[in-house]
# Entry
Amino acid sequence: MGRVMDLDPKSPLAEAYRTVRTNISFSDIDNNLITIMFTSTKQNEGKSTTICHVAHAFSRLENTKVLVVDLDLRNPSVHKMFGIGNTYGVMDYLKNTRDLEKCINRVEENIHVLTPGAIPPNPTEILSSKRMQNFIKDVESKYDYVFIDAPPVGIVSDGIIISRYTDGVMFVVGANETDINHTKEVIDNMRKSDVNIIGSILNKYDMENNAYGYYGYYYQQDDVRSGRGAKKKKRWGLFNKKKKMSAAR
# Structure
């Protein structure tokens, strides 16, 4: 199963991912969050690494079936994380050349992966299509959780388009790699588009001098205003030590 299985399930970092799992599960108790998109401001902040480990953590829950969908149609990398091929995928299904079941990779009993397949010349048009929207609704009805790896929203509009079909968005930030003002601007623009940002993860943070040694973790609750109105929102962050776990995306 590739790099996702390289993480020691008893390590503090694995436990931190399980804590993120818990926080996502309880982030909106009144609404059933099934389809969750992971994105970032720019490339190489670790969103693909993060989504794969979070999905793996969810798949360990009893009777919980998880699907990871790579909709970064410009630069896919989820298949590398799981050590699988990208010969067939979403594009084959959308073009009616292959049944959905034959496009899905069953890496474990409770965790399935759907790669993009061939890279299309017009990703924005593909993502905006009615067929894409229907596809997401279809897989949503078949799984307990659907995690979507989307392109960085600070670079192209693809992520904003995908977010319209999802129940919530997780925002991954690379420590010391992203301009905080740019990140705030991107998040503000997403909220203006009525995007439900349910949390954020600070990735690749060097905690070498921290008392925890291997990883650090913070959790806080405050008022965050969004396009869906002012409400109490929970924010959490996961700090991955650079030297222990480098991000693929």
Observations:
- The CA atoms of residues 93 and 100 lie 6 Å apart.
- The beta strands are 35-40, 66-70, 105-108, 111-114, 145-149, 168-174, 197-203, 215-226, 229-240.
- The first helix runs from residue 12 to 25.
